[in-house]
Design goal:
The chain folds into three domains: 107 residues, Udp-n-acetylmuramoylalanyl-d-glutamate--2,6- Diaminopimelate Ligase, Chain: A, domain 1 (3-Layer(aba) Sandwich); 230 residues, 3-Layer(aba) Sandwich (UDP-N-acetylmuramoyl-L-alanine:D-glutamate ligase), CATH 3.40.1190; 152 residues, Alpha-Beta Complex (Protein-Tyrosine Phosphatase, Chain A), CATH 3.90.190. It has 16 helices and 24 strands. The relative contact order is 0.08.
């Protein structure tokens, strides 16, 4: 591949007049200076902790044939680079672009041969519901015979391969690499969670989504190294709808109009409360031995009954989103209905059948907002008791501990405070902070630092009609202590406890 082929969708200048070098053959596209080899193209990313522009001399000495920059190189800096590289910099193309992150996205798409053009791409954005919605969409599409990849908070799924996720939306190079592997694996579609950070950092640059989905918006990810304020957070989310062909929006959300106002895509809507293209009517709570769920009638452009064994009114919106997307792929409503009825999403209101007397579930709720939303939804079922088992992560905001403690105490009949990922803090210190928050409300509580023993206590004391929530860990299968991740999957712990009880 020639360098000029990688740059074909970018505006750029050659900063050191080596324009002839754009026709040179290049080896790999690299954004980690440690991995540079001869004839590679190195893209200088300005990160929060490290600026790759500082490694230009290093990569030139390793044999890079081109360097992509977003910062001007002064005459003094260039002379220093000449000295540092023994003049090698003069035979290297220095490509100047406005944003190297955006450039990496476009160049990665070209490097892998524009794989998104060979897939139907579905992007899901919003504060809550992205993961559940993405898995629902993938499950339905797979059942219709459309092999579908997934990129999200929990993992990337490429055919039979499951790759644990580091970020909700990976770096743009990785996104394109996954797309390429999905095409090789025979996938025809991909559904991915698109985070505000992913949009802000151009991780989905270089292609156009076929479908963009807006679930909801609330205050989150605001602070140092994230978004400076709510408007910045919202505006980043809204970028998706300038990058897709067709947008599907939850218009019950108060920010929906802001998300749609500058959209360049066609628009489709869904809602429970407002008029929309499709609407949920006659919402009913379902209760079976050891299981709670929800059902409703979908009306409007799509008419069908919906029933799922997952609790919570928020799952009305999640299923409506999945149906709105999948209806563009299949008109077999009975199939969609059947797949959704059997849907399970790891760590997202995941019911584990333990006893017909009570309902036990695992959920990723790891901040006050998500925990409050979950517990309020569960209280709609009028359980005998709500029992919440949770801890908080170490080396994170203490405010989160106080807030989660208060929410759990206010909305649970019993809070069992335990350990989560203590990291480099003492579990008992974290638990003490949580208890400070718990005492701000009236709920009963106990502390059991060992998470397995806390779960055992909840199961052994589960009474008829209880709902027990194991909150915070969700899909995680480890516990991080002093920099080491030890295996710990709550599903495994539950099975061990049941075996030991027998």
């Amino acid at each position: 591949m020639k360098l000029i082929d990688l740059l074909e969708n970018l505006k750029y200048d050659i900063a050191n007049e080596n324009s002839y070098k754009t026709h040179t053959e290049v080896n790999k596209l690299v954004y980690d200076s440690r991995k540079v080899q001869p004839q590679d193209v190195f893209v200088c990313i300005s990160g929060a902790k490290m600026d790759a522009h500082n490694f230009i001399g290093d990569v030139v000495n390793k044999g890079a044939s081109a360097v992509v920059v977003e910062k001007d190189i002064t005459k003094e800096q260039y002379e220093q680079l000449k000295e540092e590289t023994n003049g090698k910099i003069e035979s290297v193309a220095i490509v100047k672009v406005e944003s190297t992150r955006y450039a990496l996205g476009c160049m990665s798409a070209a490097y892998f041969g524009y794989p998104a053009k060979k897939l139907v791409t579905i992007g899901v954005t919003g504060t809550k519901g992205k993961t559940t919605t993405a898995y629902m969409i993938r499950s339905v599409l797979e059942k219709t015979g459309i092999k579908t990849g997934l990129i999200g908070t929990i993992e990337a799924i490429i055919g039979d391969e499951h790759i644990p996720a580091a970020n909700t939306t990976p770096e743009s190079y990785v996104v394109q690499e996954y797309f390429s592997k999905m095409v090789e694996a025979g996938c025809k579609a991909v559904v991915m969670e698109v985070s505000s950070q992913g949009l802000m950092l151009h991780r989905v640059a270089g292609f156009e989504f076929d479908y963009g989905i807006f679930t909801n918006l609330s205050k989150d990810h605001i602070g140092e190294n994230e978004h400076k304020d709510f408007d910045d957070y919202m505006n980043c989310k809204a970028k998706l709808f300038k990058m897709c062909k067709h947008g599907i929006f939850n218009v019950d959300d108060k920010h929906a109009e802001d998300m749609m106002k500058d959209a360049t895509c066609t628009i489709e809507t869904f809602a429970v409360e407002k008029e929309a293209d499709i609407m949920a009517k006659n919402i009913r709570l379902l209760q079976k031995p050891g299981v709670i769920g929800i059902s409703y009638d979908l009306q409007g452009k799509i008419n069908m009954p919906v029933e799922i064994d997952i609790p919570g009114s928020f799952n009305v919106y999640n299923t409506m989103t999945a149906i709105a997307v999948c209806h563009h792929f299949t008109k077999d409503l009975e199939l969609i209905e059947k797949v959704l009825q059997d849907i399970r999403v790891k760590g997202r209101v995941e019911i584990i059948k333990v006893s017909p007397k009570f309902t036990l579930m695992i959920d990723y709720a790891h901040n006050a907002m998500s925990l409050e939303s979950l517990l309020l939804s569960l209280k709609e079922y009028n359980p005998k008791r709500v029992v919440t088992v949770f801890g908080c992560g170490g080396n994170r905001s203490k405010d989160r501990r106080f807030e989660m403690g208060e929410v759990s105490s206010r909305l649970s009949d019993l809070t069992i405070v335990t350990s989560d990922n203590p990291r480099f803090e003492k579990p008992e210190d974290i638990i003490a902070d949580i208890v400070t928050g718990v005492k701000r409300a009236e709920g009963q509580y106990i502390t059991i630092p060992d998470r397995k023993e806390a779960i055992r206590y909840a199961i052994e004391h589960g009474a008829e009609g209880d709902v027990i929530v194991l909150a915070g860990k969700g899909h995680e299968d480890y516990q991080e202590i002093e920099g080491v991740k030890y295996p710990m999957d709550e599903r495994v712990l539950i099975q061990e406890i049941l075996t030991e009880m027998q």
